[in-house]
Amino acid sequence: MRKILFLCTWPALLLACNSAEEQDQTTTLAVEASAPAAAETPVKLIHAEEVQTLAVGSPAPDFSLPAVDGRIYSLKDFDDKKVLAVVFTCNHCPTAQAYEDRMIQIAKDYENKEVAFIAVSPNDPLAVRLDELGYSDMNDSYEEMKVRAKEKRYPFLYLYDGDTQAMSAAYGPVATPHAFVFDQDRKLQYVGRLDGSEKPGTGQGEDLRAALDAVLAGKAVAEATTKTFGCSVKWSGKREDAKETLAKWEAEEASLEEIDKESIKKLVANDGENLRLINVWATWCGPCTTEFPDFVDMSRMYGGREFELITISADKPEKKDKVLHFLNEKNAAASTNYIFTEDDKYALIEAIDPDWQGALPYTLLIKPNGEKVYARQGTIDPYEMKKEIVKQLGRYY
């Protein structure tokens, strides 16, 4: 223990690195041993142009998929219900999130009306680029689906089809969300939108409700096919695009500028237009370097919005080359990076935040008006940080 304390407290006692034991990580996206993961090499790469939406009157293709409860489900598991509603949706899409509460309410309203309501995530997580996650705090992995379902208290099953996308290719959703309603014989009677008002709070799922009511009554759906609006399905054929984008980012050069305490005070005052995330770190601080890639991911996720990541190195000024090497190693080209020009670290502490006690790393989230909405001494919980960013920026375009 003495050795650890000695290493972490250099060069000043008040700049102690927080050990892993001191972290207060209240939320983790742990991968359970039994959880399916996105396959590195699917049996067949699927491209959007190869997929056709199931026609009205067609029988429901069977499937065998894991739900967030850990069980595997297929069509026969819903034989006791008169109507089957399948909604293809996902975690990350802002339109899907806009319809999320409507889906929850519909499922509750019809749970005692002989309707089996299930949601399916059709996206291949490996085909989703980080810059496509700008309105979300998570991707579309199975593990993250479980977190989403728990947080929102989904009253319906949430199935994962990200590995092979076989079910999704058979049904043919074009966007998220996309609804399919089958009768008791499991023939498709409706395919399309939930309603025509995609903005949050502006619809009640009228089109889907009308379809469910008609099929329950044994009647034809008045408008059996409608268009749908939302994010395109991320088919596995898009993996190459994701890889090329990542390679492009990795080829970009990071920059490093010097900054003094007066300029830091102006950064913290934030008289700009962007939500500003500031991370103070050092190359000699183990927790700092360990969590740094999470900040790089956030800069890529939210960089297309009113957001900016600023990193400030507390390394000695003569270590500038070492700091720049680290930044390039971690592909930090999307952030604005500084190194403090003074040896007096207490001047850095006061310039950043008088409430900061001096332990590294230190992270601030500041609104354009200078209001501090998040401050943490020690490592962050990446998921909680993303949630706070999305809370400030908004989940909808």
TrEMBL record:
Residues in Thioredoxin domain copies: 54-217, 245-395
Coiled-coil ranges per UniProt: none
A matching Pfam family: AhpC-TSA
Entry annotated with the keyword Signal: yes
Gene Ontology cellular component list: cell envelope
GO biological process, one term: cytochrome complex assembly
Keyword annotations from UniProtKB, A to Z: Cytochrome c-type biogenesis, Redox-active center, Signal
Signal peptide limits: 1-22
Cellular location(s): Cell envelope
InterPro entries per record: AhpC/TSA, PRX-like1, Redoxin, Thioredoxin-like_sf, Thioredoxin_CS, Thioredoxin_domain
SUPFAM superfamilies noted in UniProt: Thioredoxin-like (SSF52833)
Gene Ontology MF terms: antioxidant activity; oxidoreductase activity
Descriptive protein name: Peroxiredoxin
